[in-house]
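so my prof wants the structure for this chain in the tokens format not the other one, which i didnt know existed until like an hour ago. anyway here's the sequence
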Amino acid sequence: MRPLLQLLACGVFAAGSLMAADASRPNVLFIIADDLNNSLGTYGHPLVKTPNLDKLAARGVRFEKAACQFPLCGPSRNSMLTGLYPNSNGILNNGQLFRQTIPSQKSLPQAFRLDGYFAARIGKLYHYNVPLSIGTNGHDDPGSWEMEINPTGVDRMEDMDQAFSLIPGSYGGTLSWFASSNPDEKHTDGKMAHEAEWVLERCAKDKSRPFFLALGFFRPHTPYIAPKTYFEGYPRENMPVVQGWKEDQADIPAPGLGSYKKEQDRLTDDLRRECIQAYYASISFMDAQAGVVLDALDRLGLSENTIVVFTSDHGYHLGEHGLWQKQSLFEESARVPLIMAGPGISKGGVAQAPVGLIDLYPTLTELAGVKAPENLQGQSLVPMLKDPKVEGRGWVISQVMRGGAGAGKKKGASPAVGREGKKIFGYSLRTLRWRYTEWDEGKAGRELYDHDADPKELTNLADKPEHAATVAELSTQLGGIVKTTYPADGVTPPVQEKGMWAPNLTDP
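here's what i got, hopefully its the right format
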């Protein structure tokens, strides 16, 4: 298998390319972590050690207020890779792919591939059922890639069954963790880093085509499995536990707490500390694997002509507001790290303007001179990459759903009612100063947080008379923006098939 892959990787076989590419155009190395919040050294975290990503940020631009468009893996990734809001691509749940709703849309890597780039994927870019589908293509899009590599390591094949879980035997969607005795290179993310090295080595030998290499690390997704040496860097007794969250919940509308899971009632403070320790250890382990790839890029002389992107599919709660994991519209869940470095990008810059993952498609295609679809809904970040003080559009929007799928919902239409009960959307508008959230167009509650005075979003100002004018202004702005997240006909395209088959390497 390797000799064939080698030929493909270097572009000797160009069957996947429909156009000749100018090899002088910049390469793209796109790295995405899974379930990673902003607990990184470069974002000022006091405990988490991420030296490799910190170094990358020093070489490029760090976006301080980046956000996903839907804090759930499948919808977020499909939005990012299609350049369309979830209301326009129809992906509002996991286990779905945009080819089921908008089959003719060109994905981000597909646009590069059709413009002559060698497009390869290692690990998770579209949705996977983690951890069971590790080692498979998962819910992947074959049209996006010329080559796919799906390693699987001891974290999936050996260690997983030893992991502690709040629900015994359940790992992917449940808080679970394990300190492994196996070294980095035996874990899936370690194997992926070395596969990326292998691809880069071959692309460095044959530069007849530029590359778009996408690398999707699985950590720090549950189960938080990493070599125990990383756990040792975070003594359990030093792990911070959020206090006062029950009082904090008093002014939060019920849908705002809708991501809470019943099994989390089993958490004690000791378990909370163990959980946070494992999450931080998984981040540092992932950072080390990113370092392997970034060092290879330098060693091979590819850095000067390669645009590097590092991000995550969404943020992650570690007890804030009494919540864990994802699918909320608070800062911890909607916000993501976003770092970009490479030719034409300022070094050591920090962009304060709110931006979204939806902005990556138009940004990368502009930087590389790749033809992009005309229906992209994000803004280009190129002006900010040249001058981080550029303000851009000044806002970013995120959404979640409570109660069901909601496909086919029209602009302004009342939510459908199904077996799960009333289906509603929550939309959150993030500006430089404010986070404003409406649930079911305000009928199920509103939230307003002043980040100048309350960066942890502890005090909901939405019902305070002195903020009525701000609520009215932001509500009008939000309503106008939501309308633009739909396609031209105002109808979210329905999923043409039921949920996709979830691959499982060991129990197909």
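also thought this was worth mentioning. The first strand starts at residue 27 and ends at 33.
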